[in-house]
Protein backbone atom coordinates (compact mmCIF):
# COMPACT_ATOMS: atom_id res chain seq x y z
CA UNK A 1 0.00 0.00 0.00
CA UNK A 2 1.34 3.44 -0.91
CA UNK A 3 2.46 5.48 2.09
CA UNK A 4 0.47 8.67 2.69
CA UNK A 5 2.37 11.96 2.68
CA UNK A 6 1.07 14.42 5.26
CA UNK A 7 1.92 18.11 5.21
CA UNK A 8 3.77 19.56 8.18
CA UNK A 9 2.20 22.46 10.10
CA UNK A 10 4.54 24.91 8.35
CA UNK A 11 3.65 23.49 4.93
CA UNK A 12 -0.07 23.81 5.74
CA UNK A 13 0.45 27.45 6.74
CA UNK A 14 2.38 28.11 3.51
CA UNK A 15 -0.46 26.62 1.46
CA UNK A 16 -3.04 28.67 3.38
CA UNK A 17 -1.11 31.89 2.73
CA UNK A 18 -0.60 31.04 -0.94
CA UNK A 19 -4.32 30.46 -1.41
CA UNK A 20 -5.14 33.71 0.38
CA UNK A 21 -2.78 35.67 -1.86
CA UNK A 22 -3.72 34.00 -5.16
CA UNK A 23 -7.45 34.23 -4.41
CA UNK A 24 -7.23 37.96 -3.72
CA UNK A 25 -8.04 37.76 -0.01
CA UNK A 26 -4.92 39.88 0.61
CA UNK A 27 -3.93 42.18 -2.24
CA UNK A 28 -1.35 44.72 -1.01
CA UNK A 29 0.18 43.62 2.29
CA UNK A 30 0.17 40.41 4.27
CA UNK A 31 -1.31 40.63 7.80
CA UNK A 32 1.21 40.72 10.64
CA UNK A 33 2.78 37.60 12.10
CA UNK A 34 0.84 37.74 15.40
CA UNK A 35 -2.49 38.35 13.65
CA UNK A 36 -1.96 35.34 11.38
CA UNK A 37 -0.85 33.19 14.33
CA UNK A 38 -4.05 34.06 16.19
CA UNK A 39 -6.24 33.38 13.12
CA UNK A 40 -4.66 29.98 12.42
CA UNK A 41 -4.07 28.94 16.01
CA UNK A 42 -0.36 28.22 15.55
CA UNK A 43 2.89 29.47 17.07
CA UNK A 44 4.15 32.84 15.68
CA UNK A 45 7.49 31.13 14.95
CA UNK A 46 5.68 28.77 12.57
CA UNK A 47 4.13 31.77 10.79
CA UNK A 48 7.54 33.42 10.52
CA UNK A 49 9.07 30.26 9.03
CA UNK A 50 6.28 30.06 6.43
CA UNK A 51 6.66 33.77 5.58
CA UNK A 52 10.40 33.36 5.09
CA UNK A 53 9.82 30.58 2.56
CA UNK A 54 7.23 32.64 0.66
CA UNK A 55 9.63 35.58 0.74
CA UNK A 56 12.38 33.43 -0.79
CA UNK A 57 9.98 32.38 -3.54
CA UNK A 58 9.24 36.01 -4.38
CA UNK A 59 5.55 35.85 -3.55
CA UNK A 60 5.95 38.43 -0.78
CA UNK A 61 8.52 41.23 -0.33
CA UNK A 62 10.12 42.53 2.85
CA UNK A 63 9.82 46.21 3.79
CA UNK A 64 12.23 45.96 6.69
CA UNK A 65 11.95 45.09 10.36
CA UNK A 66 8.63 45.90 12.03
CA UNK A 67 6.77 46.54 8.77
CA UNK A 68 4.22 44.33 7.01
CA UNK A 69 5.39 42.32 4.01
CA UNK A 70 4.26 43.49 0.59
CA UNK A 71 2.48 41.08 -1.72
CA UNK A 72 4.28 40.86 -5.05
CA UNK A 73 1.85 42.26 -7.67
CA UNK A 74 2.89 39.43 -10.02
CA UNK A 75 1.28 36.95 -7.64
CA UNK A 76 -1.74 38.98 -6.57
CA UNK A 77 -4.92 38.47 -8.58
CA UNK A 78 -7.58 40.90 -7.52
CA UNK A 79 -10.92 39.41 -8.58
CA UNK A 80 -13.74 41.33 -10.18
CA UNK A 81 -16.19 42.55 -7.56
CA UNK A 82 -19.26 40.30 -7.45
CA UNK A 83 -22.74 41.12 -6.19
CA UNK A 84 -23.65 38.04 -4.15
CA UNK A 85 -27.15 37.46 -2.77
CA UNK A 86 -27.56 35.27 0.32
CA UNK A 87 -30.86 33.40 0.65
CA UNK A 88 -31.20 32.24 4.25
CA UNK A 89 -33.10 29.22 5.51
CA UNK A 90 -34.57 31.40 8.27
CA UNK A 91 -33.62 35.00 9.03
CA UNK A 92 -34.31 34.66 12.76
CA UNK A 93 -31.33 32.32 13.21
CA UNK A 94 -29.03 32.31 10.17
CA UNK A 95 -27.94 35.96 10.10
CA UNK A 96 -26.53 35.84 13.61
CA UNK A 97 -24.65 32.53 13.39
CA UNK A 98 -20.95 33.21 13.98
CA UNK A 99 -19.66 31.42 10.89
CA UNK A 100 -22.18 33.14 8.61
CA UNK A 101 -21.22 36.54 10.02
CA UNK A 102 -17.55 35.71 9.33
CA UNK A 103 -18.33 34.46 5.80
CA UNK A 104 -20.27 37.65 5.07
CA UNK A 105 -17.44 39.90 6.24
CA UNK A 106 -14.77 37.89 4.41
CA UNK A 107 -16.66 38.44 1.13
CA UNK A 108 -16.87 42.17 1.84
CA UNK A 109 -13.16 42.35 2.73
CA UNK A 110 -12.32 40.59 -0.54
CA UNK A 111 -14.07 43.40 -2.42
CA UNK A 112 -17.37 41.68 -3.18
CA UNK A 113 -20.81 43.12 -2.46
CA UNK A 114 -22.82 40.65 -0.37
CA UNK A 115 -26.37 41.15 0.87
CA UNK A 116 -29.23 39.16 2.41
CA UNK A 117 -32.50 38.87 0.54
CA UNK A 118 -35.53 40.41 2.26
CA UNK A 119 -37.29 37.03 2.51
CA UNK A 120 -35.90 33.66 3.56
CA UNK A 121 -36.73 30.16 2.31
CA UNK A 122 -38.98 29.72 5.33
CA UNK A 123 -40.79 32.98 4.48
CA UNK A 124 -41.25 31.72 0.92
CA UNK A 125 -42.36 28.29 2.19
CA UNK A 126 -39.76 26.62 -0.08
CA UNK A 127 -42.13 27.30 -2.99
CA UNK A 128 -40.07 27.36 -6.20
CA UNK A 129 -42.55 29.69 -7.92
CA UNK A 130 -42.30 32.24 -5.11
CA UNK A 131 -38.53 31.86 -5.06
CA UNK A 132 -38.37 32.46 -8.82
CA UNK A 133 -40.30 35.72 -8.46
CA UNK A 134 -38.06 36.81 -5.59
CA UNK A 135 -34.89 36.05 -7.59
CA UNK A 136 -36.15 38.09 -10.52
CA UNK A 137 -36.65 41.03 -8.15
CA UNK A 138 -33.01 40.86 -7.00
CA UNK A 139 -29.94 41.79 -8.99
CA UNK A 140 -27.09 39.40 -8.26
CA UNK A 141 -24.11 37.85 -10.05
CA UNK A 142 -24.17 34.78 -7.81
CA UNK A 143 -26.25 33.18 -5.06
CA UNK A 144 -25.57 31.51 -1.71
CA UNK A 145 -28.45 29.30 -0.49
CA UNK A 146 -28.71 27.95 3.06
CA UNK A 147 -30.60 24.74 3.75
CA UNK A 148 -32.29 24.38 0.39
CA UNK A 149 -34.55 21.43 -0.37
CA UNK A 150 -33.79 19.26 -3.40
CA UNK A 151 -36.28 20.96 -5.71
CA UNK A 152 -35.13 24.44 -4.64
CA UNK A 153 -31.45 23.65 -5.23
CA UNK A 154 -32.23 21.90 -8.52
CA UNK A 155 -33.95 25.10 -9.68
CA UNK A 156 -30.90 27.19 -8.78
CA UNK A 157 -28.55 24.66 -10.41
CA UNK A 158 -30.44 25.07 -13.69
CA UNK A 159 -29.83 28.83 -13.74
CA UNK A 160 -26.94 30.69 -15.37
CA UNK A 161 -25.80 32.44 -12.18
CA UNK A 162 -23.26 30.45 -10.11
CA UNK A 163 -24.59 29.10 -6.81
CA UNK A 164 -23.13 27.89 -3.54
CA UNK A 165 -25.29 25.61 -1.38
CA UNK A 166 -24.65 25.55 2.36
CA UNK A 167 -26.26 22.46 3.90
CA UNK A 168 -29.44 21.25 2.19
CA UNK A 169 -29.96 18.49 -0.37
CA UNK A 170 -27.20 19.37 -2.83
CA UNK A 171 -25.60 15.95 -3.46
CA UNK A 172 -24.91 15.38 -7.16
CA UNK A 173 -26.07 18.80 -8.34
CA UNK A 174 -23.76 20.94 -10.56
CA UNK A 175 -23.05 23.65 -8.00
CA UNK A 176 -20.48 24.43 -5.33
CA UNK A 177 -21.56 23.20 -1.92
CA UNK A 178 -20.63 22.69 1.70
CA UNK A 179 -22.06 20.49 4.41
CA UNK A 180 -20.96 18.67 7.54
CA UNK A 181 -21.56 14.93 7.44
CA UNK A 182 -23.83 14.72 10.47
CA UNK A 183 -25.34 11.28 9.83
CA UNK A 184 -22.69 9.33 11.81
CA UNK A 185 -22.99 11.83 14.67
CA UNK A 186 -26.79 11.48 14.68
CA UNK A 187 -26.32 7.71 14.89
CA UNK A 188 -23.84 8.04 17.75
CA UNK A 189 -26.14 10.39 19.70
CA UNK A 190 -29.15 8.09 19.23
CA UNK A 191 -27.15 4.98 20.21
CA UNK A 192 -25.95 6.74 23.36
CA UNK A 193 -29.53 7.53 24.37
CA UNK A 194 -30.61 3.96 23.65
CA UNK A 195 -27.71 2.64 25.73
CA UNK A 196 -28.98 4.77 28.62
CA UNK A 197 -32.29 2.95 28.38
CA UNK A 198 -34.32 5.60 26.55
CA UNK A 199 -37.26 4.33 24.52
CA UNK A 200 -39.33 7.49 24.07
CA UNK A 201 -36.88 9.54 21.98
CA UNK A 202 -38.08 12.56 20.02
CA UNK A 203 -36.23 14.44 17.27
CA UNK A 204 -37.44 18.02 16.85
CA UNK A 205 -36.39 19.37 13.46
CA UNK A 206 -37.70 21.53 10.66
CA UNK A 207 -40.25 20.16 8.23
CA UNK A 208 -37.89 20.58 5.26
CA UNK A 209 -35.54 18.02 6.85
CA UNK A 210 -38.18 15.30 7.15
CA UNK A 211 -40.79 15.96 4.43
CA UNK A 212 -41.48 14.79 1.79
CA UNK A 213 -38.52 12.50 2.62
CA UNK A 214 -36.09 12.53 5.52
CA UNK A 215 -32.55 13.76 4.88
CA UNK A 216 -29.49 11.60 5.64
CA UNK A 217 -29.08 12.81 9.23
CA UNK A 218 -32.71 12.30 10.17
CA UNK A 219 -32.60 8.98 8.33
CA UNK A 220 -29.71 7.89 10.57
CA UNK A 221 -31.82 8.67 13.65
CA UNK A 222 -34.79 6.72 12.26
CA UNK A 223 -32.62 3.73 11.39
CA UNK A 224 -31.09 3.52 14.87
CA UNK A 225 -34.37 3.56 16.77
CA UNK A 226 -35.94 1.08 14.35
CA UNK A 227 -33.00 -1.29 14.81
CA UNK A 228 -33.66 -1.02 18.55
CA UNK A 229 -37.18 -2.32 17.95
CA UNK A 230 -38.91 1.06 18.28
CA UNK A 231 -41.50 1.91 15.66
CA UNK A 232 -40.75 5.41 14.35
CA UNK A 233 -43.81 7.59 13.81
CA UNK A 234 -45.21 11.07 14.30
CA UNK A 235 -44.40 10.91 18.00
CA UNK A 236 -40.67 10.53 17.29
CA UNK A 237 -40.70 13.06 14.43
CA UNK A 238 -43.50 15.47 15.29
CA UNK A 239 -44.78 18.06 12.85
CA UNK A 240 -45.22 21.63 14.05
CA UNK A 241 -45.98 25.06 12.68
CA UNK A 242 -42.59 26.71 12.34
CA UNK A 243 -43.00 29.74 14.55
CA UNK A 244 -42.63 30.27 18.29
CA UNK A 245 -46.29 29.58 19.08
CA UNK A 246 -46.23 26.40 16.97
CA UNK A 247 -43.08 25.14 18.68
CA UNK A 248 -44.55 25.76 22.13
CA UNK A 249 -47.74 23.91 21.17
CA UNK A 250 -45.65 20.98 19.95
CA UNK A 251 -43.77 20.78 23.26
CA UNK A 252 -46.99 21.01 25.26
CA UNK A 253 -48.51 18.18 23.22
CA UNK A 254 -45.45 15.96 23.70
CA UNK A 255 -45.53 16.32 27.48
CA UNK A 256 -49.29 15.98 27.89
CA UNK A 257 -49.70 12.19 28.10
CA UNK A 258 -46.54 10.18 27.38
CA UNK A 259 -43.66 12.62 27.79
CA UNK A 260 -40.38 11.79 26.04
CA UNK A 261 -37.43 10.75 28.18
CA UNK A 262 -34.94 12.06 25.60
CA UNK A 263 -35.02 14.78 22.95
CA UNK A 264 -32.67 15.64 20.11
CA UNK A 265 -33.30 19.27 19.19
CA UNK A 266 -32.20 20.81 15.89
CA UNK A 267 -30.72 24.34 16.19
CA UNK A 268 -29.44 26.02 19.33
CA UNK A 269 -32.27 28.56 19.55
CA UNK A 270 -34.84 25.76 19.78
CA UNK A 271 -32.78 23.94 22.39
CA UNK A 272 -32.81 27.07 24.55
CA UNK A 273 -36.57 27.38 24.05
CA UNK A 274 -36.91 23.71 25.09
CA UNK A 275 -34.82 24.31 28.22
CA UNK A 276 -37.08 27.23 29.17
CA UNK A 277 -40.22 25.16 28.58
CA UNK A 278 -38.92 22.38 30.85
CA UNK A 279 -37.80 24.83 33.53
CA UNK A 280 -41.23 26.42 33.74
CA UNK A 281 -42.75 23.00 34.39
CA UNK A 282 -40.16 21.82 36.88
CA UNK A 283 -38.86 19.12 34.54
CA UNK A 284 -35.20 18.38 35.28
CA UNK A 285 -32.41 17.84 32.74
CA UNK A 286 -31.12 15.14 32.65
CA UNK A 287 -33.03 13.71 35.62
CA UNK A 288 -36.38 13.66 33.81
CA UNK A 289 -35.39 14.35 30.20
CA UNK A 290 -32.07 14.01 28.38
CA UNK A 291 -31.26 16.67 25.77
CA UNK A 292 -28.97 16.74 22.75
CA UNK A 293 -28.48 19.68 20.38
CA UNK A 294 -27.56 19.01 16.75
CA UNK A 295 -25.23 22.04 16.75
CA UNK A 296 -22.40 23.14 19.03
CA UNK A 297 -23.24 26.81 19.46
CA UNK A 298 -20.79 29.33 21.01
CA UNK A 299 -23.50 30.27 23.52
CA UNK A 300 -23.01 26.81 25.08
CA UNK A 301 -19.44 27.62 26.10
CA UNK A 302 -20.26 28.70 29.65
CA UNK A 303 -22.94 26.09 30.30
CA UNK A 304 -22.41 23.80 33.27
CA UNK A 305 -22.91 20.93 32.91
CA UNK A 306 -21.81 20.86 29.28
CA UNK A 307 -24.57 20.44 26.70
CA UNK A 308 -24.45 17.25 24.63
CA UNK A 309 -24.17 18.37 21.00
CA UNK A 310 -22.87 17.71 17.51
CA UNK A 311 -19.78 19.65 16.51
CA UNK A 312 -18.04 20.37 13.19
CA UNK A 313 -15.27 22.68 11.94
CA UNK A 314 -16.43 25.93 10.32
CA UNK A 315 -13.11 27.07 8.82
CA UNK A 316 -13.48 24.95 5.62
CA UNK A 317 -16.80 26.71 4.98
CA UNK A 318 -15.28 30.20 5.29
CA UNK A 319 -12.34 29.33 3.05
CA UNK A 320 -14.53 27.49 0.55
CA UNK A 321 -16.97 30.38 0.07
CA UNK A 322 -14.17 32.90 -0.44
CA UNK A 323 -12.35 30.70 -2.95
CA UNK A 324 -15.61 30.04 -4.82
CA UNK A 325 -16.44 33.76 -5.02
CA UNK A 326 -12.97 34.64 -6.27
CA UNK A 327 -12.96 31.80 -8.80
CA UNK A 328 -16.29 32.72 -10.37
CA UNK A 329 -15.29 36.40 -10.39
CA UNK A 330 -12.55 35.38 -12.87
CA UNK A 331 -14.97 33.40 -14.99
CA UNK A 332 -13.92 30.00 -13.64
CA UNK A 333 -16.47 27.27 -13.08
CA UNK A 334 -16.38 26.05 -9.47
CA UNK A 335 -18.57 23.09 -8.52
CA UNK A 336 -16.44 21.79 -5.67
CA UNK A 337 -18.33 19.97 -2.94
CA UNK A 338 -16.77 20.39 0.51
CA UNK A 339 -17.69 17.93 3.25
CA UNK A 340 -16.41 18.14 6.80
CA UNK A 341 -16.88 15.46 9.48
CA UNK A 342 -19.19 16.05 12.44
CA UNK A 343 -18.70 14.55 15.89
CA UNK A 344 -21.15 13.76 18.68
CA UNK A 345 -19.94 15.24 21.99
CA UNK A 346 -21.50 13.67 25.06
CA UNK A 347 -22.32 16.03 27.90
CA UNK A 348 -24.07 16.54 31.20
CA UNK A 349 -27.49 16.91 29.61
CA UNK A 350 -27.66 13.14 29.01
CA UNK A 351 -28.46 10.65 31.74
CA UNK A 352 -30.20 7.30 32.32
CA UNK A 353 -33.86 7.04 31.38
CA UNK A 354 -36.10 7.73 34.38
CA UNK A 355 -37.92 4.63 35.50
CA UNK A 356 -41.54 4.87 36.50
Task: Tell me what the structure shows.
By secondary structure, the chain is α/β, with parallel strands linked by helices. The protein folds into three domains: 9-71, Winged helix-like DNA-binding domain superfamily/Winged helix DNA-binding domain (Arc Repressor Mutant, subunit A); 83-179 and 314-339, Rossmann fold; 183-311, 3-Layer(aba) Sandwich (Rossmann fold). 37% of the residues lie in helices and 15% in strands. It is built from twelve helices and twelve strands. The protein has helices at 9-22, 33-40, 44-57, 91-94, 98-109, 128-136, 150-157, 183-195, 216-227, 244-254, 268-280, 315-329, and strands at residues 60-61, 70-71, 83-87, 113-116, 142-146, 163-166, 176-181, 201-204, 262-265, 290-293, 309-312, 337-345. The strands form three sheets. Strands 4-3-5-6-7-12-11 form a seven-stranded mixed beta sheet, with helices on both faces. Strands 8-9-10 form a three-stranded parallel beta sheet. It has a two-stranded antiparallel sheet with strand order 1-2. Helix 11 links the parallel strand 9 and strand 10. The longest helix has 15 residues, at 315-329. The protein is globular, with a radius of gyration of 23 Å. The model has no long low-confidence stretch (mean pLDDT 91).
**Might you state the CATH topology name of the largest domain?**
Rossmann fold
State the domain count: 3
Distance between the termini: 56 Å
Biggest sheet character: 7 strands, mixed
